[in-house]
Amino acid sequence: MSIFNPILDAIGWLLSIFYGVVPNLGVSIILLTFTIMGLLYPLTAKQARSMIRMQMVQPEIKRIQAKYKNDRAALNEEMMKFYQENKINPLAGCLPLLVQMPIFFALFRVLQNPYKYVPESSSLFKALCTVPKGPDAGVLATVDQCSKGGAYGSQLPVPKQFLGMNLSLSAPDQLTTWASVLGFALVALVMLSGYLQSRQAQKRTPAINKQMALVTKILPVFFGFISLNFPSGLVLYFFVSNLWRLGQQEVIFRSIGTAANPKHKSLTGSKSVAVVEAESRERSDEGASDATPVPAKAKKAPAPRATRPAPSGKPMIAPTGGGGLRGLFRPPPPPGAGATVRPATPPARKQSTRSTRSSRTATPTPAERPGQAGRRVSKKKKKR
Q1: Which of 11, 49, 164, 360 is the most exposed place for a label (fewest CB within 10 A)?
Q2: What SS3 class is residue 189?
Q3: Which residues contact 218 (CB under 8 A, 6 or more apart)?
Q4: Predicted local distance difference test score (pLDDT) of residue 88
Q5: What is the helix (H) or strand (E) element at residue 166, kind and residue range?
Q6: Could you tell me whether strands 165-166 and 161-162 are parallel, antiparallel, or unpaired per DSSP bridges?
């Protein structure tokens, strides 16, 4: 006896109940899906609250991880202490998935051989194991006779269809073209609804890390590919459950809010709403104030160039273009003396050679060295 037998018998019993109300196996699977999702709603709501709470305390978790990054044991101890203080269960997000896994495997086996798990007195068992034609038409077979290859050959169990699909066969194994098209369309709908579900969850509760975001994107595609080998009845269960979760997540997020705007009393009344972020900022500020600041290296300013002071007497006069030899031998003005440069005057009328010589010898400029004017005059005399 397998540990799954109670779950198998319970699913078979529910299917027979729903089939007695609506004599269609596809509709019975849809009603069974609604029942299972409704029973799991409290766990799903708890999972959503746990995810939102984890989002709200991320600043403090990152601070603890950074503080004890070199001490694994101390990090685990502090994290457990933090979870207990804030009443957070990190495994609460996995509970709905863990509960659904046995149901998933049990439903897979029930849909492969439904006559084995439904009560023999039910209308579903009679619909599956009543000989449809031949000399024994209308005879109700036993469980052993109802199997394929039994006393009645391939007539039993009688295939049950939904919209033309054989719910016991996978999409590639359907017997007609229309059934195959519907089977592959159902697989595509499973992928699309799974993608919409993950996208909806990421908008309201963004993924904590990039790895989790990547998993949520790949998971719908993975489920779509493995659905090609599953019975169409199980694929129908996947599709209906995805549609249920889309509506369920919207209701949950509107009732309990998000990490930025929590509404549920378990979130608003908790210490982890905004106090955790405030405490994290205070602790980080204290750590920053305790640390000794390291002075930054100041850039050396360029040293000012040494300038030659101007003479204390008259200001330096820049040489003009019409100075002749005097302009050639006059030293250039010192740097910074540009403000005292006198604007150039237009050349005066040419005077006689005698008056020019007398003016040069009589009024030497401050820039000339003693005896310089006489030497210049003597040179001109020699030239003449």
Answers
A1: 164
A2: helix
A3: none
A4: 77
A5: strand 165-166
A6: antiparallel
Rounded-to-integer distance, Cα 218 and Cα 215, Å? 5
* Torsion angle defined by CA atoms of residues 243, 18, 113 and 219, in that order, rounded to the nearest 10 degrees: 10
d(CA 225, CA 221): 6
Residue 11 lies in a domain: yes
Pinpoint the alpha helices (H) of 205-319.
210-226, 232-256, 265-268, 275-290
Nearest-Å Rg of the Cα atoms of the chain is 48
Q: What is the DSSP letter of 69?
A: T
Tokens linked to 23: 């004599």
Domain count for the chain: 1
Q: What is the pLDDT of residue 33?
A: 92
- Identify whether 223 is part of a domain: yes
Question: Rounded to the nearest 5°, which phi and psi values hold at 164?
Answer: 90, -5
**Would you say the C-alpha torsion 245, 251, 252, 253 has a positive or negative sign?**
positive
Phi–psi pair at 130, nearest 5 degrees:
-95, 125
- Structure-token match 């106090």, residue found: 275
**Angstrom distance (rounded) from CA 86 to CA 55:** 13
SS3 of residue 336 by DSSP = coil
- Specify the pLDDT at position 362: 47
Distance CA 333, CA 324 (A): 17
Residue 165 β-bridge partners: 162
Domain that holds residue 34: 5-113+157-282
Measuring CA to CA, which residue among 77, 86, 80 is closest to residue 57? Answer: 86
Residues 342, 336: contact at Cβ < 8 Å?
no
End-to-end CA distance of the chain: 140
What the block records as the tokens of 222 is 């993975």
Is 238 a domain residue?
yes
139 phi and psi angles, rounded to 5 deg: -80, 135
Residues in the chain: 384
pLDDT along the chain (384 residues), means of 10: 82 94 94 91 81 79 87 87 80 72 85 89 92 87 81 82 89 88 94 89 64 78 89 92 90 73 56 47 49 47 51 48 53 54 51 46 47 48 47
Closest-CA residue to 147 (of 135, 133, 132, 158): 158
Q: What share of the chain is helix, strand, coil (3-state, %, to 5)?
A: 60, 5, 35
272 neighbors 82 (Cβ within 8 angstroms): no
How many other CB atoms sit within 10 Å of the CB of residue 249? 17
